[in-house]
Amino acid sequence: MTPLELSHTVLRAVRRAVDAGELWVEIPVRAPVTPPGPGGCGDYATPIALKLARPAGHPPLKVAEILRPHLAHEAGIRDVVITPPGFLNITLQETSLIQEILAKGPRYGHPDTPTAPLTHLHAPNEPRALVVMDTLARVLRSQGTPVHTSCDTRPTPELTSTLGIEIDTYGTPPAANALTIRPVPAPLPDTPPFFPLGRDATRWALLHPAPHDHPHLTGAHLTQRETNPLFRVRYGYARTRALTRNAAALGFTSMAPTLAPEPGVRAR
């Protein structure tokens, strides 16, 4: 269960309490879910009871006590503990979480259905603007927001293929409320190759600076040293992949085997 899904679960618990006549409040738009703070426990905590206390006319602890059974009966939740002044600390069922991650694979964390209305993104035919738009579209889609992208004119095949950019339509934005992406343009060489750093390093160089700063497409992004943030990301990824390969070579997999008790040892 992802934090977003847990937030929806908390809202369902509030709705059940309202439907049962235990609370007289308006259902919030969202329920904050964060790691537990000092004095908390479990995997996540929500201050929803504190948020509803005043409109409900009850102390936060009373609201938390009302919500606790509704939340504890939700699938995927192992335990709910109340801590002052009214936090609901939630412990997830580890087995269900692991099974969900294994079942969804790369799609884990992505909503199964759209969670927001269609968003229109538009960008001029300029590499940095297109990369920012493409990245923003990917992030929004991963969180369940349908996105339509457009560009003033059709970019060159080299630009779209080298940088891995996908654009839906060209010309005038299809919606008057389209969000136009217009960061400071990136300086490109006058002659090919226009993107000598390759896809990953070029996208990083275009995305890493703030929109109002000028990007620098230099070989410094390929330097293998700790001061290079791109190198740190690549190094971490490479080490993780190496650990996975080495573990597989030793017979370790993501599924923990069922261990039979040794002869003469009583199973607990």
From TrEMBL:
Transmembrane spans: none
Gene Ontology biological process: arginyl-tRNA aminoacylation
InterPro entries: Arg-tRNA-synth_N, Arg-tRNA-synth_N_sf
Keywords: Aminoacyl-tRNA synthetase, Ligase
Annotated ranges, domain Arginyl tRNA synthetase N-terminal: 4-92
Statement: the UniProt record of this protein carries the keyword Ligase: yes
MF terms in GO: arginine-tRNA ligase activity; ATP binding
SUPFAM superfamilies (alphabetical): Arginyl-tRNA synthetase (ArgRS), N-terminal 'additional' domain
Coiled-coil spans in chain: none
Gene Ontology CC annotations of this record: cytoplasm
Name used for this protein in its record: Arginyl-tRNA synthetase
Species name: Streptomyces acidiscabies
